[in-house]
UniProtKB/TrEMBL annotation:
Keywords: Amino-acid transport, Cell membrane, Membrane, Transmembrane, Transmembrane helix, Transport. One of its GO terms (cellular component) is plasma membrane. The keyword Coiled coil does not apply. The chain crosses the membrane at residues 21-46, 52-73, 80-101, 113-132, 152-177, 206-226, 238-268, 274-295. This is Branched-chain amino acid ABC transporter permease.
Length: 305
């Protein structure tokens, strides 16, 4: 499961911690949750328009993380500076996969789309295993373990940067969907694709643009993760499990819900890690997942079907 590199600590179950330690854990959890939210944004955006769960999301995240590793080792490019390079490349990759592979192979059948994305995930994961083997790799950067001292709390510098970028991406994505013609077309297709087609919107193009935007989001997330995380050919699946919980908590197809849900899940994970130990830190995430499914299956901001 996702576990950022940090110093190993011993915890006692339900040990009493000073308020400053608890506050620091919550703040660092919120910072981590912002990256979870960014991964979930791509997942919920694709669901909101195509109305399917993209099973290839985790494999594409892994591919993006390896791309960050390669551009750093091959070109010496810092992961954060790789964002403007990899984001358009992965948007194009997502657009091409939906327009040339997923759409034609599924023949617009939702069940077939699920199978195609699952098959795509298996192909990508095995291709990465063939090229990179099962070894775990990480970047060694000067600032990976640097902290920001707020006086009352110490925050991880990479997570602070990740929080700022994730919030900026969410705002930009909201602006694109709300203020641009393409965004209005995306919302029209999400609401009623037949009606959108009747007024002249190219539904296949909008599907591909949406898939491209979702893939671009995980490319940015990969750039934010690599300074403080490791990568192996299966690591993306663990993040998508958390991201799916975020999507369910926030509401399927809701961008504000994905953002708020990601922050909440990050805080819960951090507190559980503090009180129960890192190995049990994700118990709280899946308890929330079950409770949401039982008592509010539409999530915080989701609408009834």
């Amino acid at each position: 499961m996702p576990c950022f590199r940090k110093e190993k600590q011993d915890h006692q179950v339900f040990h009493s911690y000073p308020p400053q330690i608890v506050l620091e854990a919550v703040l660092n959890g919120l910072l981590t949750g912002s990256v979870y939210a960014l991964v979930a944004l791509g997942l919920t955006l694709v669901y909101g328009v195509l109305h399917i769960i993209n099973f290839a999301h985790g494999a594409l995240l892994t591919l993006a993380m390896f791309a960050v590793l390669m551009v750093h080792l091959g070109l010496g490019l810092d992961p954060y500076l790789a964002i403007p390079v990899l984001t358009p490349l992965f948007f194009g990759l997502g657009y091409g996969l939906q327009r040339l592979v997923i759409g034609p192979a599924s023949r617009n059948d939702d069940g077939s789309i699920l199978l195609v994305t699952l098959g795509l995930s298996i192909i990508l994961e095995n291709a990465l295993l063939a090229v990179f083997r099962s070894d775990t790799r990480a970047l060694t950067l000067d600032y990976s373990f640097q902290v920001v001292d707020l006086g009352f709390a110490l925050l991880s510098l990479p997570r602070v940067i990740g929080f700022g970028v994730a919030i900026l991406v969410a705002v930009v994505l909201w602006a694109v969907l709300s203020l641009t013609d393409t965004g209005k077309a995306i919302r029209a297709v999400a609401k009623e694709k037949l009606g959108a087609a009747l007024v002249g919107i190219d539904v296949r193009h909008i599907y591909a643009v949406t898939f491209g935007l979702g893939t671009a989001c995980i490319a940015i997330a990969a750039c934010l993760l690599m300074p403080s995380f490791y990568v192996n050919p299966r690591v993306g699946n663990a993040f998508v499990l958390v991201a799916f919980t975020v999507v369910v908590l926030g509401g399927m197809g809701s961008i504000p819900g994905a953002l708020i849900g990601g922050l909440a899940i990050g805080a819960v994970e951090s507190l559980c890690g503090l009180y129960l130990g890192e190995s049990l830190g994700q118990i709280g995430i899946f308890v929330i997942f079950i409770l949401v499914l039982l008592f509010r299956p539409t999530g915080l901001f989701g609408a009834k079907a």
